[in-house]
Amino acid sequence: MAELVFWCAALLLVHTYFLYPVVLFVIDGVARVLHDVRWLRTGASRGGGGAVGELPRVSLVVAAYNEAGCIEEKLRNSLALDYPAERFEVLIGSDGSTDGTDEVVERCGDERVVLSAAPRGGKTAVLNRCIPRATGEIVVLTDANTRLEPGAVRELVRHFEDPEVGAVCGRLRLYNPTKAEYEESAYWSYESLLKLYEGKRGAVVGANGGLYAIRRSLFTVLPPSTIVDDLVIPLRLLEQGYRVEYEPAAVAHEETTEDYGKEFGRRARIAAGNFQSLRMVPGLLSPRAGFRAFAFWSHKVLRWCAPALMVLALVVNLFLLGSLFYGLTLVGQGLFYGLAYLGKRGALKGPARRVASVAYYFVTMNLAIAVGFWRFLRNTQGAAWERTARASS
Q1: Is residue 38 part of a domain?
Q2: Domain enclosing residue 187, as ranges
Q3: Percentage of the residues of the chain whose pLDDT score is greater than 70
């Protein structure tokens, strides 16, 4: 029984982090081969080159809480996007800002900018208020501290020519102004790769909050307690049968934080919201949802179970020490956690330092998931968010 538990925990961990990406790559490869075979047999067009219809009206919605330090730059960036001015608006939802954010927006003077201010209620309250009042057929959601590249909106919008597409996730590129390499970079690249291949199947299980677009007509009011909107909104659309795609050419840039305490708190908050989302999209937990359910379980649900699986694998391994093999697996686990500790202390140099930093990031990420789960069980995680401190430029 101990061996069974150990291997179940180990294989589930291997699946969510390693086997699932391989499955995505294989599915994509098979799909490409079948597409080429059909093309050779029928001579049908490979797609593309069709006429482009009239661009839809777009509303860029920004939830802002005390963003006076960056909201003016956000407005400049938004109004400079490569999209027809007459078909574009910027809707700033101020969530009880007290630092002059509202006054900065009011001074903008561009008729495309609309301010919607209300007492503090959290990001969900902002979205529930602003998305229904938006005039755009397509609503692009972004953060106040996120800078969009000029063609980002056009790249997102073109996907909506397909009526089966309900949402499109852009590519969020993280940077750190003080360190060329940081712990999140490798993991974020890995996550972006998963989104790319999930997007080819129309099943991106969660958007980047810094940049994603939805059809306004498909938005349904979120429960006020919703913590992670950029997860719940796309999942709801997947549950309804719509495609959620990924557009790597729609690029946004966002600065990471140097305050690791606050970053840990942000991850724990997101984790609490992740567990909360399970009861909001029960249809995606059923095998009847097909590939969508497989992606949700593989990429998200098992990932959220990883802290428990890691503890289980370690504890059960202690009861299997009569075998040399299981002695080696225990040593391997110990070495991994020791490497994470060295990553925390910054004790290594060169390539070894980077490997240790990734191990440390992995362990702290899973610790944050455990903390988030505890907050979820106790219902102590509020929906309102706090600004993440950024390095001064």
Answers
A1: no
A2: 58-288
A3: 91
CA distance 174 to 254: 5
- Please tell me the pTM assigned to this model: 0.91
Percentage with pLDDT > 90 across the chain:
76
Scan for tokens 């399970």, then name that residue.
278
Q: Give the DSSP letter of residue 138.
A: E
- Looking at the DSSP bridge assignments, the partners of residue 203 are 244
User: Does any domain span residue 29?
Assistant: no
Q: Where in 144-202 does DSSP place strands (E)?
A: 146-148, 165-175
Task: Tell me what pLDDT residue 381 has.
Answer: 78
Instruction: Give, as one character, the DSSP assignment of residue 87.
Output: G
Are 227 and 221 contacting, i.e. CB atoms less than 8 angstroms apart? no
Do 155 and 218 contact (CB within 8 A), yes or no? no
The total domain count for the chain is 1
As a dihedral over the C-alpha atoms of residue 358, residue 360, residue 361, residue 367, rounded to 10 degrees, the angle is: 150
Element holding 236 (H helix, E strand) = helix 229-239
The dihedrals phi and psi of 15, each to the nearest 5 degrees, come to -65, -50
| Domain CATH code at residue 196 | 3.90.550.10
Residue 146 belongs to some domain of the structure: yes
- Taking the C-alpha atoms of residue 72 and residue 5, their distance in angstroms, rounded to an integer, is 55
Tell me which residue of 188, 197, 344, 206 sits closest to 255, measured CA to CA: 188
Parallel, antiparallel or unpaired: strands 138-143 and 58-64: parallel
* Residue appearing with tokens 């140099």: 349
Tokens of 250: 């729609």
279 falls within a domain: yes
Of the two residues 346 and 293, the one the predictor is more confident about is 293
332-4-320 Cα angle (round to 5): 50
Instruction: State the Cα–Cα distance between residues 133 and 110, nearest whole angstrom.
Output: 19
